[in-house]
Known about the structure:
By secondary structure, the protein is α+β, with helices and mostly antiparallel strands.
Amino acid sequence: MSFHPLATFSGIKGVPLLALTRNSLNPLLSVEGDQVEIRVFRRLRLGIADLARVTTSRAIGQLVTLVPKAGFRSFSANFADRGEAVRLLCTLDGLGAPLDDKARRLIAGQA
């Protein structure tokens, strides 16, 4: 299942709004089986079981951040369409991803 972010980013865990790399020319985010594929600088596959947390916040659009259990990086996708971000979160939730309270509130329409 493909999603259409405006841009994708990699950052440092625990340091919001600091992007190490970004891709606004050819961003990619898809969910296939039990993996999320995101392209920032290069394509990266993250297993749902390898995620420590999935969160969201408002930026220029709706930002969805994937925080892996291992490593120091986090990966984000910024969506112009809030509905597309909710569709991604619902897909991840259905696969058992660890959504935090902010992500669950957005799905419920309360954010």
